[in-house]
């Protein structure tokens, strides 16, 4: 069981590291964010399986994850249509 905790911690931290290192491209940020969410889902699934097969909350988590992914992709498509690329340097609406 300890090896699962080590692997899940490594997955989560490597996803966060890629999220912070690839901050120039929105697509790479979205992919690393989905990887972090996938590692959190795996950790939650393993934890809930030890508690007695209560998987209802994991389905709610997956639903919110899919909604988050769709919103991120819609922002990416909107950004590419308006600016032509997914660089954050060309996206100056926030400044």
UniProtKB/TrEMBL annotation:
Places the protein is found: Membrane
Cellular component aspect of the GO annotation: respiratory chain complex I
Catalyzed reactions per annotation: a ubiquinone + NADH + 5 H(+)(in) = a ubiquinol + NAD(+) + 4 H(+)(out)
Keywords per UniProt: Membrane, Mitochondrion, NAD, Translocase, Transmembrane, Transmembrane helix
Pfam family, one: Oxidored_q2
Highest rank taxon of the organism: Eukaryota
GO terms, molecular function: NADH dehydrogenase (ubiquinone) activity
InterPro entries in the cross-refs: NUOK/Mnh_C1-like
Residues annotated as transmembrane: 28-49, 55-80
Topology in membrane: Multi-pass membrane protein
Similarity comment: family membership: Belongs to the complex I subunit 4L family.
Name the record gives this protein: NADH-ubiquinone oxidoreductase chain 4L
């Amino acid at each position: 069981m300890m090896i699962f905790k080590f692997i899940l911690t490594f997955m989560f931290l490597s996803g966060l590291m890629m999220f912070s290192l690839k901050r120039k491209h929105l697509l790479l940020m979205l992919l690393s964010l989905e990887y972090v969410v996938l590692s959190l889902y795996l950790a939650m699934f393993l934890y809930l399986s030890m508690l007695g097969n209560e998987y209802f909350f994991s389905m709610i988590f997956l639903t919110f994850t899919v909604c988050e992914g769709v919103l991120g992709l819609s922002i990416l498509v909107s950004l590419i249509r308006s600016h032509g690329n997914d660089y954050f340097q060309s996206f100056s609406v926030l400044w």
